[in-house]
Every structure is written in structure tokens, then in C-alpha cells.
């Protein structure tokens, strides 16, 4: 599509891959009748819904700032991640319900070898795509792509356990392993969903950058603000792919506006080189406003 960003293209590809994997896992369940493979297929239904939600959120977040949203629409991606976490939890509840029914009435597996082969192919596809999404998500600072990658990675781990478990059922004839494994799968994806929702809510609540990133920001300000006295009231927050940095820069009282602006330009250039998608606000103050705390300029 004309004008489509690379992130949107990746999100569209995620939808197609999720549909293909869902078809394969549904086939594996149909071949075997395994409740554990049913659980694995149900999680892939969530993958499809989550990929669609991520695509919609990425398209919204790409819109430029407007009169109603002067800071842009980047936070739309966090809503996608929260929705994905909620969908994971719903899937886990449905899996637990099915596992309980199968526990009460154990089922004999059919065509286990064929079903396991199909499931293994689907898991391999998910593993490769998850690795790709992690690389692209980190490079583009996209919460939606990273959320999708974490979910797929969880799916890969779960599917691997399911494949081993179903193979044990086929080898030993112990039918109870199948619903027990489905229940463990549900618990695993419940934890994944909770973790994802917690991280996404942190983004919606304007969570600050991690301590190591904050330390790097302070060091860059101290190094590149030569001519100033100090920087205080340093604040940071994330919004989608963007990092907002705000602070007050104290300069000598006799410094000209042009000189103070040159210092600000140096600091902004250094911070943007480090943070890439950074939006920086610097409030210049005369030395009488110094608080003698915060970042002392080297």
C-alpha cells in the first residue's frame, strides 16, 4: 500500500502469519483430539486478534500531531498491548474450562505423530517470526511489535511443552497428562498476559525511563552543557516510540540568549543521538534560580 510504513508492513505480515499458524495448530488438534493441542490452537486465535489490534494501533500511532492531540498519537500502541494482555487472560480461562472437562473424561489421542509434526512446523514459524519482531520492535521502539513478540515467544515455549507432553501421552498411554498439560499451558499464558498488561499500563501512566538510561541522560547533559551551571528538575517519560526529556538549565546571568541557545542545541543533539526518537524541552534560567542539585555541568 502507498505510504505504508515499515512497521505497518510488519504488523500486516504478523496478521498473515498468525492466521497460517492458527490453521496449522487447528489441524493438529483435529488430527489428534488432544485438549493440550486445543489449548495451543486457542492461544493462536488470540494471536490473530492481537495482531489485528496491533496493526490498528500502529496505524493510529503513525498519525501526525493535530489540534486535539498536539503530542501525537503514539500511546495508541499501549492500548493494543493492554488489549492483547486481556485476550490472553480470556484464552487462559477457556483453556482451563476445557482442561477440566477432559480431566473428568480423558480422551484417547488419534494420529499423534501427524498432529505433532504439524504442531512442530507451526511452532517453528512462530519462533522465527518472534525473533524478527524482537529485532524490529527494539530498533523502532514499538510497544505493539514488542508486545506481539513477547506473546509469540510465550506461545513458542508453551507449544514446545505441549509437543513434548502429547508425545509422552502417545508413548505411555497416560491420558491424564493431556489435560494436566493444558492446565499448565493456561497458567503460563495467564502469567504472560498479566506481565504484558502491567508493562503497558506503565507506559500509559508515563513511566520514567529505566535507571541506567536516566544515568546516561544525566551524563550527556553534564558533558555537553559546557558554559551552563547546572540542570535540575530533570524528568523523563515514554510514549510509544518516543522518549520525552524535560529539565531546567541554569546559565550565568550575563549570558546572551544566543549563547544559551547554542548550549541547548548541543545538549539536544547529544540526547537525540543517544535516544533517537527523543522530544526534548529545556527551560533556561539565570543563575539566581540555581538549586545546587540535579546535574552539575562538567
UniProtKB/TrEMBL annotation:
<dbReference type="InterPro" id="IPR027469">
    <property type="entry name" value="Cation_efflux_TMD_sf"/>
</dbReference>
<dbReference type="GO" id="GO:0005886">
    <property type="term" value="C:plasma membrane"/>
</dbReference>
<dbReference type="InterPro" id="IPR027470">
    <property type="entry name" value="Cation_efflux_CTD"/>
</dbReference>
<feature type="transmembrane region" description="Helical">
    <location>
        <begin position="78"/>
        <end position="100"/>
    </location>
</feature>
<feature type="transmembrane region" description="Helical">
    <location>
        <begin position="37"/>
        <end position="58"/>
    </location>
</feature>
<dbReference type="GO" id="GO:0015086">
    <property type="term" value="F:cadmium ion transmembrane transporter activity"/>
</dbReference>
<feature type="domain" description="Cation efflux protein transmembrane">
    <location>
        <begin position="12"/>
        <end position="205"/>
    </location>
</feature>
<dbReference type="Pfam" id="PF16916">
    <property type="entry name" value="ZT_dimer"/>
</dbReference>
<keyword id="KW-1133">Transmembrane helix</keyword>
<dbReference type="InterPro" id="IPR050291">
    <property type="entry name" value="CDF_Transporter"/>
</dbReference>
<keyword id="KW-1003">Cell membrane</keyword>
<keyword id="KW-0813">Transport</keyword>
<dbReference type="GO" id="GO:0015341">
    <property type="term" value="F:zinc efflux antiporter activity"/>
</dbReference>
<feature type="transmembrane region" description="Helical">
    <location>
        <begin position="12"/>
        <end position="31"/>
    </location>
</feature>
<comment type="similarity">
    <text>Belongs to the cation diffusion facilitator (CDF) transporter (TC 2.A.4) family.</text>
</comment>
<dbReference type="InterPro" id="IPR002524">
    <property type="entry name" value="Cation_efflux"/>
</dbReference>
<dbReference type="InterPro" id="IPR058533">
    <property type="entry name" value="Cation_efflux_TM"/>
</dbReference>
<dbReference type="GO" id="GO:0015093">
    <property type="term" value="F:ferrous iron transmembrane transporter activity"/>
</dbReference>
<keyword id="KW-0812">Transmembrane</keyword>
<protein>
    <recommendedName>
        <fullName>Protein p34</fullName>
    </recommendedName>
</protein>
<feature type="transmembrane region" description="Helical">
    <location>
        <begin position="112"/>
        <end position="132"/>
    </location>
</feature>
<dbReference type="InterPro" id="IPR036837">
    <property type="entry name" value="Cation_efflux_CTD_sf"/>
</dbReference>
<feature type="domain" description="Cation efflux protein cytoplasmic">
    <location>
        <begin position="210"/>
        <end position="287"/>
    </location>
</feature>
<dbReference type="Pfam" id="PF01545">
    <property type="entry name" value="Cation_efflux"/>
</dbReference>
<keyword id="KW-0472">Membrane</keyword>
<feature type="transmembrane region" description="Helical">
    <location>
        <begin position="152"/>
        <end position="173"/>
    </location>
</feature>
<dbReference type="GO" id="GO:0006882">
    <property type="term" value="P:intracellular zinc ion homeostasis"/>
</dbReference>
Amino acid at each position: 500500500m502507498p505510504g505504508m510504513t515499515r512497521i505497518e508492513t510488519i504488523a500486516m505480515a504478523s496478521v498473515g502469519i498468525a492466521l497460517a499458524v492458527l490453521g496449522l495448530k487447528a489441524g493438529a488438534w483435529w488430527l489428534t483430539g488432544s485438549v493440550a493441542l486445543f489449548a495451543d490452537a486457542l492461544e493462536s486465535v488470540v494471536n490473530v486478534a492481537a495482531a489485528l489490534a496491533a496493526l490498528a494501533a500502529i496505524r493510529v500511532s503513525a498519525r501526525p500531531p493535530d489540534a486535539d492531540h498536539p503530542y501525537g498519537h503514539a500511546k495508541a500502541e499501549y492500548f493494543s498491548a493492554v488489549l492483547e494482555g486481556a485476550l490472553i487472560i480470556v484464552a487462559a480461562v477457556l483453556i482451563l474450562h476445557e482442561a477440566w472437562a477432559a480431566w473428568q473424561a480423558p480422551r484417547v489421542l488419534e494420529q499423534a505423530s501427524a498432529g505433532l509434526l504439524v504442531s512442530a512446523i507451526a511452532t517453528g514459524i512462530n519462533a522465527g517470526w518472534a525473533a524478527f519482531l524482537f529485532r524490529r520492535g527494539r530498533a523502532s521502539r514499538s510497544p505493539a511489535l514488542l508486545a506481539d513478540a513477547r506473546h509469540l515467544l510465550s506461545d513458542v515455549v508453551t507449544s514446545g511443552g505441549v509437543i513434548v507432553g502429547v508425545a509422552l501421552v502417545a508413548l505411555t498411554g497416560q491420558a491424564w497428562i493431556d489435560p494436566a498439560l493444558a492446565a499448565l499451558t493456561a497458567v503460563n499464558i495467564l502469567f504472560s498476559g498479566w506481565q504484558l498488561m502491567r508493562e503497558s499500563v506503565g507506559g500509559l501512566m508515563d513511566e520514567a525511563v529505566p535507571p541506567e538510561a536516566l544515568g546516561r541522560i544525566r551524563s550527556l547533559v553534564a558533558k555537553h552543557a559546557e558554559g551552563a551551571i547546572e540542570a535540575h528538575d530533570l524528568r523523563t517519560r515514554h510514549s510509544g516510540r518516543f522518549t520525552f526529556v524535560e529539565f531546567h538549565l541554569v546559565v550565568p546571568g550575563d549570558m546572551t540568549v544566543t549563547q544559551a541557545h547554542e548550549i541547548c542545541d548541543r545538549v539536544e543533539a547529544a540526547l537525540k543521538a543517544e535516544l533517537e526518537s527523543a522530544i526534548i524541552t529545556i527551560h533556561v534560567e539565570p543563575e539566581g534560580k540555581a538549586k545546587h542539585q540535579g546535574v552539575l555541568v562538567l
